[in-house]
Every structure is written in structure tokens, then in C-alpha cells.
Design brief:
The complex is a heterodimer of chains A (about 110) and B (about 110). Chain A has about 110 residues and is mostly beta strands. Helices cover about 0% and strands about 55% of the residues of chain A. Chain A has no helices and eleven strands. Chain A has strands at about 5, 10-15, 20-25, 30-40, 40-50, 55, 65-70, 75-80, 85-95, 105, 110-114. In chain A, the strands form two sheets. In chain A, strands 2, 4, 5, 6, 9, 10 and 11 form a seven-stranded mixed sheet that branches. Chain B is an all-beta fold and about 110 residues long. Chain B contains no helices and eleven strands. Chain B has strands spanning about 5, 10-15, 20-25, 30-40, 45-50, 55-60, 60-65, 70-75, 85-90, 105, 110-114. The termini of chain B are far apart. The chains are: A mainly beta (about 110), B mainly beta (about 110). The interface of A and B includes residues 55, 92 and 106 of A.
Chain lengths: ~110, ~110
């Protein structure tokens, strides 16, 4: 158990809908990352937050957004969902932006868009 | 060309064999190198990390980094069926703003046959 908690573990939704994925980082970790893993793309970095502020942006679509709250939990919002958005979404956390080499992953949220 | 290249496998070996997993990369700015193990539909688990060039050993696992060749390796001695998983290399760099995000290889699927 990495200490990173993600909910929900699984969800199925229809195209055009919106979902929110939730992440609680490890105790003491200030930095949260979101990754997408699909069969054909591997693990793709989406976005990073550090202590409530956006720190780095990767291949995140405009239909997707994220935020980190004062209690350090984070949410990833996916809207206008398409079939191609079906993937495993991982949250990860690290102690600080200066310690990015020790990133711990949650178990993921498996999203299926039908 | 991807920044990080990794042979997807699958790599099948008998129990007790020495396994060699490798990644090449193109960006000389990478300074931190990691190996993650991922069981099916689970979150990646950090196995090893190294900074810059050199070797690091932890039990049956040895990580090697050759920055001059832009080549990293993970060796698994006395491989066990429980080592069967996908192994992902990852690397990161520090920009002037201190932002870090991991760039992953596509993963090599390892099967250790009993």
C-alpha cells in the first residue's frame, strides 16, 4: 500500500458525460500528479500540483481540468467524455517539488466510456 | 522519436534466471532514473532510483545508469514467478523552475516461468 488513495476504483459512463476522480496523497506529501495509462499510449503525465498550485502541465486535454485543495487532496475532472478517454487514471504524490524522484502511485481509477 | 525507448517484450525466462531490462533515452538533461514494477491493473510501485551515472543494488535488484550512452538497465537475479509484471523505466529532470515530472518508458512485460 503506497498510501495514495484514489476513488472511485471503477466507473462506467456514457460519451458526453462528466466525471470527477478523487485523490488523497500520502500523509505529508505536498505534490500531487495525475497520469493516464491506456493500452496504446502507456503512462502519460497529465498535470502536477504542489501545495495547491499548478506546477507542471503535460499532455492534458482542454476537456480535462484538475485542482488541489487546501487539505491537499486533488480532483481530476473529465468532461465531454469520448470513447478514447477510457483508461486507467493514476494519482501519485511526492513530498515536495524538489523530491520528484520518489513518486508514489495510487491504485488507479479505471474509467470506461461507452 | 520518443524521449524514452523500452522494448515492450514480453520477455519470458525460467525461474532462477538473471533478467536484464533496458531503456534508452535521448534527452541528456535527465538526471534521475527510476524503475517501477506494475502488476496487472495495479499502480506502479517504485523499485529503484538512481541519480546520474552509476550502479545501485537492493537485494536481487541492481540498477545501472550510463549517461554517456544514454542507457539504463535493471538486473534481477534469481528471478521468481512473483517477479512477473511489467517493468517501467522512468526519468526526470529539474528545470530552472524546479518542476519535475516523470517521463516513462512504455514498459517491458516480464514472465518468469516456474
Amino acid at each position: 500500500d503506497s498510501g495514495v488513495t484514489q476513488t472511485p476504483k471503477h466507473l462506467i459512463t456514457a460519451t458526453g458525460q462528466r466525471v470527477t476522480l478523487r485523490c488523497s496523497p500520502r500523509s505529508g506529501d505536498l505534490s500531487v500528479y495525475w497520469y493516464q495509462q491506456s493500452l496504446d499510449q502507456g503512462l502519460q503525465f497529465l498535470i502536477q500540483y504542489y501545495n495547491g498550485e499548478e506546477r507542471a502541465k503535460g499532455n492534458i486535454l482542454e476537456r480535462f481540468s484538475a485542482q488541489q485543495f487546501p487539505d491537499l487532496h486533488s480532483e481530476l475532472n473529465l468532461s465531454s467524455l469520448e470513447l478514447g478517454d477510457s483508461a486507467l487514471y493514476f494519482c501519485a504524490s511526492s513530498v515536495a517539488a524538489g523530491d520528484g524522484n520518489t513518486i508514489y502511485f495510487g491504485e488507479g481509477s479505471w474509467l470506461t466510456v461507452v | 522519436q520518443k524521449e524514452v525507448e523500452q522494448d515492450p517484450g514480453p520477455l519470458s525466462v525460467p525461474e532462477g534466471a538473471i533478467v536484464s531490462l533496458n531503456c534508452t533515452y535521448s534527452n541528456s538533461a535527465f538526471q534521475y532514473f527510476m524503475w517501477y514494477r506494475q502488476y496487472s491493473r495495479k499502480g506502479p510501485e517504485l523499485l529503484m532510483y538512481t541519480y546520474s551515472s552509476g550502479n545501485k543494488e537492493d537485494g536481487r535488484f541492481t540498477a545501472q545508469v550510463d549517461k554517456s550512452s544514454k542507457y539504463i538497465s535493471l538486473f534481477i537475479r534469481d528471478s521468481q514467478p512473483s517477479d512477473s509484471a511489467t517493468y517501467l523505466c522512468a526519468m526526470s529532470r529539474t528545470s530552472d523552475t524546479g518542476r519535475r515530472a516523470l517521463t516513462f518508458g512504455s514498459g517491458t512485460r516480464l514472465q518468469v516461468q516456474p
